[in-house]
């Protein structure tokens, strides 16, 4: 596979969403590492104020500035940005009105908080606007500053509204700089340069939310990306054993003989019963996960499977997930 032979050639904004608890931020961070590998420069952005990126990379809380936080496999840099709506508003006032000093005064008066509270759509314009500005930004030579931007977006249930900024601000400003800014954001978010990826587990609720989210994106003319199936457990037993366990046909006597042959003679019968119960549970979970894989296939989107890390997600685990993402062609 060449350096450019991936499923997402031409995509420069990777939006990552998923139901809470699926590992959305972890996958976004691993994807950023994978995209940066081989000498690229990638920006990883978060917008929910949780400082999840800093925690994953074992860094202090991120300020509102772009900071290098990791070196990717084979070279390449990952920078990170935690967007603060208040600071984004100040940038907006300076960019379109030259009013940064006035903006600071408004901040002290609490006016900016008031504005973003009564007009939540404007808040989303600010957050997505800063992200899309990073996508479009060029250095003095005319080259893009970042090869890709990864956005750790809000959960699946809110991501369409978050991204669909033009509709959100339509009643707020039909003309003028705010509307122009929103349309510029929409021009990036709804373009082939963007892909909205979903993170899920092989469980019924997150799988259904993923399918619903993809359908909602398509209905709004937004570009669905791939599906990252996270925390996948290996199928460790042969098919015939799984079938026997699922049908409650495991031979306890055979298990007892095997335990004794292995030197586990104490309470062999009780151990065999406990082992049979564990195997039956594994068989049940395996059947459910296979069913959910079939359900996800209905979305007709590229799918990538990431393993459940036995030791949890630390920095080494992030690099392991990045390698897996790269090997499957997602970066």
TrEMBL record:
Domain ArsA/GET3 Anion-transporting ATPase-like residue range list: 13-170
Pfam families linked to this entry: ArsA_ATPase
GO function term, MF aspect, one: ATP hydrolysis activity
Gene3D superfamilies in alphabetical order: P-loop containing nucleotide triphosphate hydrolases
InterPro entries in the cross-refs: ArsA/GET3_ATPase-like, ATPase_ArsA/GET3, P-loop_NTPase
Source species, domain of life: Bacteria
PANTHER family in UniProt: ARSENICAL PUMP-DRIVING ATPASE ARSENITE-TRANSLOCATING ATPASE, ATPASE RV3679-RELATED
Annotated protein name in UniProt: ATPase
Source organism (scientific name): Bailinhaonella thermotolerans
């Amino acid at each position: 596979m060449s350096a450019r032979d991936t499923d997402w050639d031409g995509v420069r904004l990777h939006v990552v969403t998923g139901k809470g608890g699926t590992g959305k931020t972890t996958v976004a961070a691993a994807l950023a590492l994978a995209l940066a590998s081989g000498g690229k420069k990638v920006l990883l952005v978060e917008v929910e104020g949780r400082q999840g990126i800093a925690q994953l990379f074992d860094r202090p809380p991120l300020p509102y500035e772009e900071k290098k936080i990791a070196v990717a496999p084979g070279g390449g840099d990952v920078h990170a940005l935690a967007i603060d709506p208040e600071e984004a508003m100040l940038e907006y006032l300076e960019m379109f009105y030259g009013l940064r000093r006035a903006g600071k005064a408004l901040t002290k008066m609490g006016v900016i908080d008031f504005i973003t509270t009564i007009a939540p759509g404007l808040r989303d314009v600010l957050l997505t606007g800063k992200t899309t500005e990073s996508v479009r930004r060029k250095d003095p030579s005319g080259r893009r500053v970042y090869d890709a931007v990864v956005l750790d977006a809000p959960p699946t249930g809110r991501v369409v509204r978050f991204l669909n900024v033009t509709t959100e601000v339509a009643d707020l400003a039909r003309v003028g700089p705010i509307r122009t800014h929103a349309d510029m954001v929409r021009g990036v978010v709804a373009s082939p340069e963007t892909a909205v990826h979903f993170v899920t587990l092989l469980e019924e609720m997150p799988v259904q939310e993923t399918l619903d989210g993809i359908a909602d994106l398509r209905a709004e003319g937004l570009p669905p990306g791939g599906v990252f199936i996270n925390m996948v457990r290996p199928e460790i037993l042969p098919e015939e054993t799984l079938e026997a366990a699922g049908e409650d046909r495991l031979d306890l006597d055979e298990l007892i003989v095997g335990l004794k042959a292995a030197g586990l003679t104490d309470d062999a019968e009780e151990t065999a019963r406990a082992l049979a119960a564990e195997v039956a549970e594994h068989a049940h979970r395996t059947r459910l996960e296979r069913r959910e894989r079939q359900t996800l296939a209905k979305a007709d989107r590229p799918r990538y499977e990431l393993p459940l890390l036995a030791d949890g997600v630390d920095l080494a685990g992030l690099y392991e997930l990045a390698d897996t993402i790269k090997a499957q062609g997602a970066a």
